[in-house]
Each structure stands twice: as C-alpha cells, then as structure tokens.
Specification:
alpha/beta; Glutamine Phosphoribosylpyrophosphate, subunit 1, domain 1; Rossmann fold; 3 domains; eight-stranded antiparallel sheet; seven-stranded antiparallel sheet; globular; binds 2-deoxy-2-amino glucitol-6-phosphate
Amino acid sequence: MCGIVGYIGTGSAKEIVLSGLKNLEYRGYDSAGIAINKKGKLLLRKESGELENLIAKTRKAEFDGNMGIGHTRWATHGSPIRENAHPHLSADGRIAIVHNGIIENYIELKNMLIKDHGIEFRSETDSEVIAQLIGVLYEGNLLDAVRAAVSRMRGAYAVGIICSEDPDTIIAVRKDAPLIAGIGEGCNYLASDIPAVLSYTRDIYVIENGEIVVITKDDIKIYDEDMTRIGREVMRVTWDATAADKGEYEDFMKKEIFEQPDGVRKTLGRRLTNDGEIKLDGIKLSKEEIDNIDRIYIVACGTAAHAGIQGVTLFEKFAKIPAEMDIASEFRYRNPLVNERTLCVCISQSGETSDTLEALREAKRKGARILSICNVVGSSVARESDDVMFTEAGPEIAVASTKAYTTQLVCLYLIALYMGRKKGTVPDEKYASLIAELRQTPDKIKEVLKTEKQIEKLAEQFYIKEQIFYIGRGMDVGTALEASLKLKEITYINSFAIGAGELKHGTIALVRNGTLFFVLATQDKLYEKMLSNIEEIKARKAHVVSIAKKGNSRVAKVSDEVIYIPECADDVTPLIAIVPMQLLAYHMAKLLKRNIDKPRNLAKSVTVE
Ligand code: AGP
C-alpha cells in the first residue's frame, strides 16, 4: 500500500526521504517518486518498479535540497507506470502532492477542473485531482488553498503538500489513512508509518482524522478542521529500529517465524501474574460489564480473521457468550444485529486496515463496545477502541503475517479466560491447567522450529504441486485456513482449506491419484474422526501429510508422512500447529524463488477498501 514521507530541515531531503521510503517498502509498491523544493523550484522525479530505479535517477547533485516529499505507490486507479506515480504537480508546477488513500469523488472533481479551469491531466490517478484542485485554489496562501481543497474532497487520504513559493512549509492532512509527524532537532518529518522516520527520531505525533499539520523545520503545528490549534502529546517510540532489520535472516518472514517463541512469551508475560492471574492493562471491562454482554462479534480480515475463528471457540467455551466471526468487509454492509450489549472484538496487526476500521466504526455507531487486539501503538484501530490489548510481536514487516497471528491468538486466550474467570464460567482446575499450558507454548514452538530440516525435505517433495488441500476439525479448521492462506500468498500455489467433515459434501470430487492433502489432526477428541477422513481420501489415492501430536502413532499408519508437534492440550494446539505450516509455505516459496517478503499484488497494510 502507498507510503508517504516528507522532510524539512538542513539535511539532504533527497537522502532522508529516500531512506524513509526504503523503510516503508514492506507496505508494497510498484512505483515511487520524490519532489524536492530547491531554491523555490520543484524538482520532480518518478520511476516505476524498484526504488533503486528512483535512487539511480536522483544521484546527481541537482536533486540536493533541504525540503521534499516522497511516495511509494501501489496501483489502485491507473496502472503502475511512471506517469501515474506520485508526486503529482498542479498544472502551473507550483504545487506538489503525495497521497495515500482514495478520493471517491475524483471523477466529479476532475470533470469540474477540466470544464471550469481547462486543466489537462497527466495521469489516470484519482490523486492528481488533489494537486490540480489545490493549484486552482492557490492564491498565495498554501494553507488556505489546502483547506478549501479538503472541504471538497471525499474519501480517505493522508496527503503531504509542498509549494514552490513556500520553501519553509510542508502541509499535511489526514482522513482515514495513517499519518505521523516526526520531531527532529532543527528539522521535522512526515510519514505514513513510524519505521520511515525511526532512523532519525523516536519522538512522534500521531495525526488524527480531520487534522491539518503545518510543518516547518523548527515546529510542527496541528490544527483541527476549524483551525483550532491542538496540543498533542509526544509519543516516544520504544521499540528498536533493529527490530525492522532482517538481522542474520535471509527474509523478514523467516525472522518473524523464528521470533514467535519470544513474541508469545512477551504477550503472555506482561499479563500473567506469578500466581497465574490475568491482568489486562488496556482492558477496563468490569464484572458487571462482562455480565451485560450478550453477543460477541469478532471482525477482522485475512490472517487476523483466522485468529478470530479460533476466538469464537474460545469466547464460547470459556466466557459462555455466543460469538461470531465476521469478515470485516462483509460486516460493515450487512446491517448486523449490534446493540449496547454487543462486544465487538476487532483484530488487526497494522491497526490501519480500512475494512476493519470501518467495521469498528459501524459497530460503534450501533452502540457496541469496541475491544481491539492490535500490534501498532497509536494506530487508528487502537485509538478508536474502548479497550485495546497490544500484541507484543514487535514490527511485522513481511507481508505474510506469522508472529502477529500467534500473538493475536495469545490475546484471545487471555481475554476469553479473563472474561470466563470474572463470570465464573471456567472451573478453577481447568483455568489453572490452561494457564500452565499457555506458559509452555513458547518452548513448544521452539521445539517445532527445530524440525525445520524435516520440513525443508517435505518442501522439496511438494513445491512443484499445482494444488494443495488442507483439512481439519475443531480448532484445526482455523489452522487449516491460515496454513492455506500462507501457502497461497507466498508460493502462488492454488490451495484450499475445508472442515474435514465437509469434504464428502462436494470437494472430495477433486481427489484423485496424487492429490496432496495436509491433514491437521491435533484434536484428541476428534482424532478418530480424522483417521476416518484420512482413510476416505487415501481410498482415492490422495497423498497425505498429517500434522499430529507426538504419541499419536496410529496416524502414521494411514498417512504417507507425519509432522509431529509436542504434546499439548487440544485448546492450545492452534498456537503450535500453525508453525510447521508456516515453515512449509516458506520453504516451498524459497524453492520456487518467490519474492517472499513482498509477494506479487499484495500489500502489508490494506488502507483502501
Ligand atoms: C496475512 O498474511 C495477510 N497479508 C493479510 O491477510 C492480513 O492479515 C490482512 O490484510 C489483515 O491485516 P491487519 O491484521 O493489518 O488488519
């Protein structure tokens, strides 16, 4: 998804903006550009493809200036060609803008600009209308022109704006797209995301919806829509810049898979007291409020939605509250039965996913209490929620989510158990044994990571397959769905996940000699049923790789291969069984020479609908 960077100060804007864009690469992009204000003249360069192309084209000293904006674009309106890359210029060349988001009424604005002002558009993008609109409204005061333009724009946007005639100011506006300002010494920064500025500053302002920011080298002023100055607290970023480095690993995805024992331990650690009680810092639900909840809707997208599927089981089992998992993009349009007694649980790694954010707002409008599970402090989802529980995963850079998933699961266990404990619906013994099981999961994940060599061998056997099925029952259904998504995302192999009992209702028609199945068989109470499912597909000559707990040897007799995970309670298997599946997808993608951290057509944070 697009990324924005801006810099104003005494250093080289080109170097700083380009390095910021490099740190936003994980958002995904297909073209990039910068605009530098040099002595009252805007110098513009844009290139399609890798950032390196842009870096190569801006090597010359003519691009040296102390103020500039830059952008990495992920095509939505218009193909990823140089003309459609940002920054966009106004017709008179005085205004340059970078934009993240979508201008919904751009056709209307474009027609008006063509008809009333004779503007000739140079790109197919919605974003160019912002530059042209500000251009025609500009009468010597950039801030006035930006405010007038914003009042006519509908949609979602984070926009950075510079003007050749105002070499001392960058202006930015935000609505429903992330934006931060970084505080430097004798310089200041603008960006879509914290990692862009982390090499330069740890002090940031999170910009809120509807706000306008005026940035000079010595000051950052934040205003609301009515131009009332806002005093914003400085947020000090505590996580390490090296957390966004690959370190000794070849890819971020591999690093993040191996960081899971640590992430799970940290996410648990902060919330579990020595005597096993759960303390939820960001969640203020009292016993009365929990008793009042009569329904839980979990809303999320992609991997976070798969964590949500497990959440349904956990909330119903431990808190005894009816729960449903809704894909956020559907929830927001289907008029769900939400009221003051509804708890809406939003799960989002980035906290900026547009569909999840809109689902959250829809639930809020209808009176629900919003509890979020999020990985990014200061993100929109976190800020707009009543209660937030942060995953302690550290920045997740690879597009394919791994450590965010397992830490989201940990949060769901803790919240469901906390609610159950308050309600008195989890017997003491069951509670104590689950807490003990949860405490052991980091070590069990570590044990699974040690089987990497075996998994690599399986990857060598299967990476040429064109189609792969994943089946499971109970909590293994969510694991199967997540495993299948991981494979699809990074290998581009067609894969399909389904509850094993559902196979015979249609999908079994696809099974023939050599069809590959990954069978999740980790649920003791459903083990026999899974063995029957394996027999069923083996009878049709499928190739079966089962994932089972150590000690369950019967599965080996009916399967072609078995990946064993350590013994554990059925309830916590989702935390452990997904790990070999992540590794398998990773190694298959490696053999296929895929761009693992940045798979085609995907972006890390999907801030458009
Ligand atoms: C995960 O591997 C995906 N890239 C994607 O499904 C992701 O989980 C989804 O877009 C939701 O993102 P979020 O957690 O940041 O809201």
